[in-house]
Design a protein that fits this description.
Length: about 325
């Protein structure tokens, strides 16, 4: 029986706006259609949150509600389950605190939120929470990426990005994998999980494909690798020949380690060659606040599959 739950919620765009602006100022900042949409999304989100709380109350479950922005690791200790209420950002902001096998139920609180990582919509929230409380649910184990930064280890659910803080700068790094070593210049290196493969990884160059969230592997790709002339591939709208387009989609042939797969027991080591003016970074799940690490010249990251996957509730069992 699930009887100790943490509900991790998002704060809405409307919430953040009201932190620093009066409502009258918002009227001036947004068109009436934009403001209506923001307010409607705000109300829908909190309606969904109330539905989750009322369902837990009805089952006599002890629970605590916290904004994932203000959460801390101790809040996730000794919980029977965690429910995220929001969108993909809420799932990512919640998952970073989950270091054990506690199940996570990701509820998409509003259809306008990005919800690719959410397994339950707001109209299914009552049934999903009921199944969670009765321990009648199915779970998937989503692979995560782990990076060792000296004595510090960080984990990401979607991806790890290595490059310059300003992505218009060229990233300069050396990658080591399977006994091969190669220095690369690109817009950055992306190391993706299956969960993250439908996002940045999929759209980085038109040829990388999503893979299963439970796949026991990571995949990496150099983003816009520079060719032998020291230039990036041309924008596709400048190409007129089909063969040229295909060549550009494939990127530079200069590198052998442009893409690769990290399997269980395997690791990739990446060392930065970027001077301080480039401000090299290693960033997990786009988290600028808590999971962005210095990746300036000489810094090294050893990347592998994380020891613990994220246990995600995907549906109810009869």
């Amino acid at each position: 029986m699930t009887d100790n739950v943490l509900v991790s919620m998002k704060r809405t765009t409307f919430d953040y706006n009201l932190d620093s602006h009066s409502y009258d100022e918002l009227v001036d900042r947004y068109t009436s259609e934009e403001l209506d949409r923001i307010e409607d999304s705000h109300e829908t989100h909190y309606d969904t949150l109330e539905t989750v709380k009322e369902t837990l109350d009805g089952k006599g479950v002890d629970y605590e509600v916290v904004s994932h922005r203000f959460a801390s690791p101790d809040m996730f200790m000794d919980r029977d389950a965690v429910i995220s209420v929001g969108g993909d950002g809420t799932v990512l902001g919640t998952a970073k605190y989950m270091e054990d096998d506690t199940p996570l139920l990701p509820v998409r609180s509003d259809g306008r939120s990005r919800g690719g990582l959410c397994t339950v919509g707001r109209f299914d929230a009552v049934d999903a929470v009921d199944a969670l409380v009765r321990d009648r649910y199915d779970v998937e184990q989503w692979t995560r990426v782990s990076g060792h930064h000296g004595a510090t280890t960080a984990v990401g659910l979607n991806e790890l990005f290595l490059g310059a803080a300003d992505i218009s700068d060229v990233a300069d790094y050396t990658i080591e994998h399977n006994g091969e070593t190669e220095r690369q210049n690109s817009s950055g290196l992306i190391v993706s999980t299956g969960a993250g493969s439908t996002g940045w990884y999929k759209n980085v160059d038109g040829r990388t494909q999503p893979f299963d969230r439970e796949a026991d592997e990571l995949r990496y790709t150099a983003w816009s690798p520079m060719d032998d002339s020291g230039t990036y591939p041309q924008p596709l709208d400048r190409l007129v020949d089909r063969v040229d387009v295909l060549r550009e989609l494939q990127g530079s042939d200069r590198y052998e380690l442009k893409t690769g797969v990290i399997e269980p027991g395997d690791s990739v080591t990446v060392t930065s060659n970027m001077n301080d003016d480039k401000r090299g970074i290693a960033r997990y799940d786009g988290d600028k606040r808590d999971r962005t690490y210095d990746f300036s010249r000489g810094k090294q990251v050893e990347i592998s599959i994380a020891d613990r996957p994220l246990h995600v509730v995907t549906g109810s069992r009869s």
